[in-house]
Structures are given as C-alpha cells and as structure tokens.
Amino acid sequence: MARFTPHTEADIQEMLDAIGVDTLDDLFADVEPRYKGELDLPPALSEYEALREVDALSRENVSGLPIFLGAGAYDRIVPSAIGAIISRGEFLTSYTPYQPEISQGTLQSIFEFQSMISELTGLEISNASVYDGANAVVEAALMTARLTKRDPKVAVSAGLNPRYREVTETYRVEVVDLPFESGTTDYSSLPDDVSGVFVQSPNFFGVVEDIEAASDAAHDVGALCVAVCDPISLSILEAPGNLGADVAVGEAQPLGMPLMFGGPYAGYMATKEEFVRQLPGRITGETIDKDGKLAYVLTLRGREQDIRRAKANSNICTNQALTALAATVYTALMGPEGLRGVAELSISKAHYLAERLQASGFGLRYQDASFLWEFAVELPDVVRANEALLEAGIVGGLDLRDGAMLVAVTEKRTKDELDAFVEVVSNAL
Amino acid sequence: MPFNLIRDKGREGRRGYTLPKPDVEMKELETVLPKSALRKEKPRLAEVDEPTVIRHYTNLSRENEGIDTTFYPLGSCTMKHNPRANEAAAVVPGFAGLHPLQPEAQAQGALRIMHELQGFLAEVSGLPYVSLQPLAGAQGELTSILIVKRYFDDAGDEGRTTVLVPSTAHGTNPATASMAGFRAKEVGLDDRGCVDVDELREMVDESTAALMITNPNTCGVYERNIKEIAEVLHESGAFLYMDGANMNANMGRMRPAEADVDIMHFNLHKTFSTPHGGGGPGCGAISCSDDLAPFLPDPTVEKRGDAYRFVHPEKSIGRVAGFHGNFGQMLRAWNYIRMHGPELRDVTDMAVLNANYVRAQLGGTYRIPYDELCKHEVVVQPPQGKRALDIAKGLIDYGYHPPTIYFPLVVKEAMLIEPTETESKETLDDFIGTMLELAETSQEDLEAAPTHAPTRRLDETRAARQLKARW
After folding, report:
1. B20 DSSP assignment
2. Which of B105, B107, B361, B426 is the most buried (most CB within 10 A)?
3. Is the ipTM of this complex over 0.85?
4. Which residue of chain B is at minimal alpha-carbon distance from A105?
5. Cα distance between residue B422 and residue B43, in whole Å
6. Three-state SS string across A128-186, please?
C-alpha cells in the first residue's frame, strides 16, 4: 500500500506507553458495537498501480474529441497558469480562513473574486461563491422569500436550465411556469404572490432574454428579480444590475474550470448592498490589523450557520474557494478584452455553424431569436445524427428529445470541426 | 505594499492570455444582438500580463498556511496530508475533459469509478445504498434530512415536525434541520459529554423525525450508547442520522450500520484526503438503509451486466447538484481508497493514537473536560485565567495553524485538537512542547500575538461596520 503515516513500531510503542494502554485495540475499548472483521475492499495498491488503473479507466471514456455539448457546462480554454496557481499547497491544502492572520492569501483572492463578480454583474456585493450554478439559483430563490417575507415561490420559464429548476424543487421551493414562445419568456402576466422571478440570459436555448422586462414585471408584483447569467456573456451583455435585477447568479465553470464530468465547479451570487444581510455564504471584507495595516477577514458572520445555528440564512458552510480561485486567475489573465474575445469568437463560430446548417436545410428552432453561442437546431433524427458524429470523432449536441439538438460552440472549435459537423449531419440525414 | 490588488498591478491594454486567431469571419455584435442588450461600459477588471498574474498569486499563497507548510490540527476538519497521487489522478485528460452530459456509453470509465466508490462507502459504513451527489458535507446533511422528510411525506405521516440535535452538534446540523422544514430541538448531555439517553427518551415522541448524532461526537468522545439511542428513536418510528464528519475515527473499527444508524453523510475532503482547497470544493456523499434508499437523489449508478448506467430512485427527492456531483473529488477519494484497501483501519488507528498521545501529554497543564480515551480528536481547555483565543494566536507565532477554538460550544474556552494520522511523533512532541510553553507565557505576550504572521490581529468589527467587499 501507499503509506502516508510516519510511525514506526517503536514510535507506536512509545506512544502507547505514554497513553498508558498496551495495544492499539485498547484505544477502542469504549467502542460498542465494535467492528471486528476486515473491511471488504480491494487490496491496497501502490501509487503507481493505482494511477495505472486510473489511466486505464480513463480510456473507457470517450475523450479528446471536439465537443458540441453545453447546457450548463462548456468546453472552454483553461489557461495553463490556472493549474500552476491552484496546485500550490498553500492554497490547495488550507481550509476556511478562520485564522485571518495566516490566511490572507485565500482571503484576498476571495476579495478579488467578489470584486470581479461585482464588476461583471453590476451589483454591489458578491459572496465568496457557493457549490455550483444550480445551488446559486436555489439560494437566490430562498433569499427572495426572506427579503419579500413571502413563501418561497418563484416564477420561471422553460428558458431556465431544467436542472436548476429540479434542484430548486428539491429544496421545497414552489415553482410556477411562465409562457415561453419563440425562444423567450413572456413576463406580462405574473402571479402576484411569487417571491422571485427568474430570468436566465442567455437562456437554456442560448437566446438573450430581456432582463429589464423581467425585473419591471417582478417589481410590479412586489417580487424580486433574479438574473441567471453566463459570466462570459457579461463581457458583452449589459450587466443585470443595470437592468433592474436584484440578484444575479450563475455557473462559474466557464471561467477556467475543466468539464470534469460535472464538477467541481462554483456558483456565483451577487446582490444589491441593501440585501447583503440576506445573502448566504461567506463574504470577505476589508479591514485593518492592530498596526493599521490593510487586511481581509470573513465578515457579517452573524448570517452563518456556525453562529446562528437554526436561524442561519442557509446551512451552507464552505464556499468553493479553490474553484473560485481558478475563476479569479482566469478573469485576471483574460481581462475585459480577453473575456470579450472569448465571447466574440464563440458567437462568430456558433453563427457560422448555424448559418451553414440552415444552408443545408436544417432549421433553427427559434428562427428570429438572438442567440450567442448555443442554439437549438431541428433535425429529423437527432439520435442518428449523434451516432454519425461520434463515428466521425465528434461529440454532438444535447438531444432535446423533441426533434431538436442543442448545440454549443466555444472558442475551442475550429472551422474544420464546424465544417465536419455540417458535412456529417447532412450525409447522415 | 504587500496588499496591492491584482487590478492595481495592471494597465489598460495589457493581456495575460492570447486566444487563437479567428478562422471564421468575425461577427459584429450589433448584427447578431439588439443594441439595447449590449454592455455600455466595460467591467473594471484587471488588465495584466501572465508573469504578473503568476507572481501576484504566488505571493498571495505565501500569506497562507496549509497542511503542506505546517501542522494544522484544526478539530473537526481532519486536515490530513493530501497525497499527490490523488491530484495526478484528477488531471488525467480522459476524466478532466469529460462533459457531464456525454451519454453513459461514452463515460463508462467515470461511471465505474462512481459505482466502485459507492461500493467502498457502503462497505465502510455498512449502509448499502449510496449517493455521491451532495457537493459538500453540509449538503450531505441536508440531503439526508430531506430524505427523511420525504419518507414521512410518502407515508402520509404529517406529524413529524421535529429534528433533535445534541448541544455538541456542528452548527450546520440545526441549520440543516430548519432548512429542510423541521424545528430543531436541542438534546442535553450526560457527564461524559454524550447524548443524555434519559433526556432523549423524554423528548422523543410521535413528532420526532430524526436525531442528528455525530459519532465520535465533537468532544472526540465515542457515543457509547449509540445502539440504545437508535432503539429509542426506532421505537417511536424516527430515524437516526449520523454526521460522518468524524469517520476518520471509525474506519474498520466501527460501522454505523451495526450501530443501527439509518442514514449518514461522509466528507470525502476529510476522511478520504481530497484537498480542502481553502474552503471547498468538497463532497458530502451519503449512505443509507433499505428503507430510505427509494428517496436518494437522482440519479445513482448501477452495474448491469458489464455496463454501468444511471438509475433513477423510485421516489427520489430530486437532484441536489446541477450534474452528478463533484466528480473530481470522487476520483481523488477513489484513488485514496484504492491505495489503502482494508488498511484504512490503520489510518483510523494512527489518527486515534495521535489524538490520545496529545491528550496524555497536555493533561495536567491543560484541563481535559472529558478525560478518558478520546477518538481522533481531543478537546482541551487552557489553564485557569488564559483564553483559547490567545493560546491560538500564540501558536501562530510558533508556525502552527491553531486548533478549532470555542467549539464545541458546550465546553468553555474549548480548543479542539485533531492531529490526524499523517503527523509524526516528532511533530506532535514539538507542538506539545509549544502548547506547554504557551501555558507559561505571560498574558501580555499572549495578547500581543501574533507578531510573526503576515498580519497582526484584525479589527473584525470594522470589517462589518464599514463593509467593503469589493474594489
């Protein structure tokens, strides 16, 4: 086995003597019922053997091919500098910065993360991140209930990622449906007892929604507006905070996190300063030390579970510090122009693919809607199309199971790959 | 100026990453989007080059202590060494590049990892049904309690409104109970710091849905009456949930199933060495008995013939994560368990040995409120007149990360020390020596500490009163 415990037999004996017991078994004398068998686990491997098996299993996955799947997780470029930073032991092997004097690295990086999210969303206060985009949506839904003093009940449309909706329902939030036609949501007739109105832009089908219309309608019924936004899109689209959104949330995975079969990612959450006390999760604030030196510390801790226990805003304990750090380093490397470059490349390539598919006779599901880098294309046989694509070494889009495929195009896709996609689909159908 | 922000180190026009050249015609944004949707002002982000980024965050990291730099006996957090083989596993391209929505047939390797890990956790707990989806320990708790809720809803038993929580519990326990729609009620302790079974017996009735127990508890003491506690709950139709934060004390020595626990969560980032990352990401996998299995989060992984596939528990509470959970952490934990096999018991033995050694050596100078065999951690109190906070800050000057302080809440001036199994006797002896020295240090010197850290003590009130949480 690979050993990470340093004790020799002599160490163990000396320590048992100091404790005043004879054997290791004696340390468990109070354990009842005691397990006396041997755990039925496969025999221990050395590091080399374990990693050889990991490598062998990895080859049972289809990987290394161009991917046209999106729907909440995107195959984007991850700059090498990110891995170099997040693998530093001082970040990797530390924990929640309860002792700020020796955690300024984590604390300042969270402060920078919060600042970047505030800038992108146009909202004053961001938290230190939550588990993932879906959980950011749930926490926002619960937050709207606390702020409006209404029962947790939110209005959403088919434009909200269905997985976000499912998680929201798991958390016992009532969800009501809004009409969704021609690729966008109709906010004209809202129930008057909802606590929150959700607008995802770009929505699940890649279409840009009218956040201002959603927030006006929400405010008319005394509800709050939550915008769910892809952070890359905020480099080119108006910030939700400037369009009346009270809360902005989303999935930070596109900011430098590998796909990794669904996680770890990170959710971001930002809101107006007046709502900060109902914001869940960690928040880092600026302060000074005894000598007057600038420093950072976890703040407004009275909202959290370890202080308020049953009365806390949420049971959430940790944020996603390391993946949030990845997002911070990504955003620093890219800067506003780099983020915009990623968005523009993705948009240009997605529109090129959509145009070529249309020229080949395949219609878009929402012909007149404005989309960014993801779109639904109608195909006579999506299953057959995806099989043909896989045979040609391409991972196709998401089968919406209603005669359409949801196709995502990132900056990583090349013209050759886009052309191949069109050719394979045309030949197969 | 050590605390310059990344944005202060930039200049308009600098770039830290070069994107591939366009190979299709670039679209003017105005031609594909309504002008009203476009951003009018660019976000005030850092505009910096890569060398500056690397240097900035490298220097920030040097303001941090981690397990890699120091002994980190943070009680209840299991800050054990994070084997680098786990990290090597997590960057293998066949896993790192796998999209969560790739069909099952394209993800057989990943599904096999998940299926095997489900089996490993079932074996360690004795509870046969596992969900790996919860994204953190607190979410594992919530998922468990939501399952209990759904069980009673399904049974048409509407009167189950209360979840009991011992006064030693982690803060997440009562917060979880509230979030799942229950009223949290506190159960008192006996003189050993364990759940008072007589009081429990008085409290449990038809309105009780579950008790949330941590075993060993947050004082590091084994809850010896756990079977009786389970019996009290089961007699009135309630469930016993176990917070598995302290499983590092149990592997191969105690299986929750044999203690009649119904459902529990694991912290893969504690027991199975996935890195804590400055506070996440973690993984809060859960395991449960037959009764509760139909309610597990959707989906779990099953093996049918030679193939692995997702299955959808019949009466699932739904999903708790956007995708399948933190797969990267599952892969690391799988690798860790493969490197240990049944010898996971040695991990537990060494963790318990180390904690008892610290207890034996600090006793006499520090007060040990529950002075009996402890498990993987021990709670101590500073000598009369000294404060836990000051000792903690004193430890910083000697290069240690302090233990957890002021928790558990039931012990005044508590210092919860969890050495873990990966520390040598020499490290423990040095730490013990420092603790004994600090017990003798003058109050004035202790209050001045830390003086050798990146900062002195901080004005936490100012941070809250004059909130500044962004540049």
Report:
1. P
2. B107
3. yes
4. B60
5. 46
6. CCECCHHHHHHHHHHHHHHHHCCCCEEEECCCCCHHHHHHHHHCCCEEEECCEECCEEC
SS (H, E, C) A79-126: CHHHHHHHCCHHHHCCCCCCCHHHEHHHHHHHHHHHHHHHHHHCCCEE
pLDDT for A397-421, tens place per residue? 999 999 999 999 999 999 999 999 9
- For B344-448, CATH number out of 1.10.10.10, 3.90.70.10, 3.40.50.1110, 3.90.1150.10 equals 3.90.1150.10
Residue reference for tokens 């579950």:
B210
Please report residues of B whose CB lies closer than 8 A to that of A109.
57, 60, 278
Angle (CA) A76-A82-A85 rounded to 5° is 165
For chain A, list the domains and their CATH numbers. 9-56 (no CATH), 80-328 (3.40.640.10), 335-428 (3.90.1150.10)
Determine the average pLDDT of the residues in B7-28: 97
Interchain CB distance below 8 Å, B280 and A131: yes
Q: Does A383 touch chain B (CB under 8 A)?
A: no
Phi, psi of A269 (to 5 degrees): -145, 130
Q: Is the pLDDT of residue A354 over 60?
A: yes
pLDDT in tens, B224-272: 999 999 999 999 999 999 999 999 999 999 999 999 999 999 999 999 9
Set of chain B residues whose Cβ sits within 8 Å of the Cβ of A382: none
**Bridge partners (DSSP) listed for residue B373:** none
For A126, the closest chain B residue by CA position comes to B469
Are B78 and B38 contacting, i.e. CB atoms less than 8 angstroms apart?
A: no
Binary contact (A291, B456; C-beta < 8 A): yes
Rounded-to-integer distance, Cα B333 and Cα B317, Å: 25
Q: How far is CA B308 from the centre of its chain?
A: 29
| Dihedral, B384, B387, B393, B397 alpha carbons, nearest 10 | -10
Write b or e for each residue in B199-214: b if 16 or more Cβ atoms lie within 10 A of its Cβ, otherwise e: bbeebbeeebbbbbbb
Give B87-342's CATH code, choosing from 3.30.9.10, 3.40.50.300, 3.40.640.10, 1.20.120.450.
3.40.640.10
Handedness of CA B335, B340, B345, B349 (dihedral sign): negative
Cβ of residue A304 closer than 8 Å to a chain B Cβ:
yes
In the three-class reduction of DSSP (H, G, I as helix; E, B as strand; rest coil), residue A34 is classed as coil
Tally C-beta pairs within 8 A across A and B.
667
Distance of CA B43 to the CA centre of its chain: 35
Q: Which residue has the tokens 């997702």?
A: B310
Task: Write out pLDDT tens, residues B92-137.
Answer: 999 999 999 999 999 999 999 999 999 999 999 999 999 999 999 9
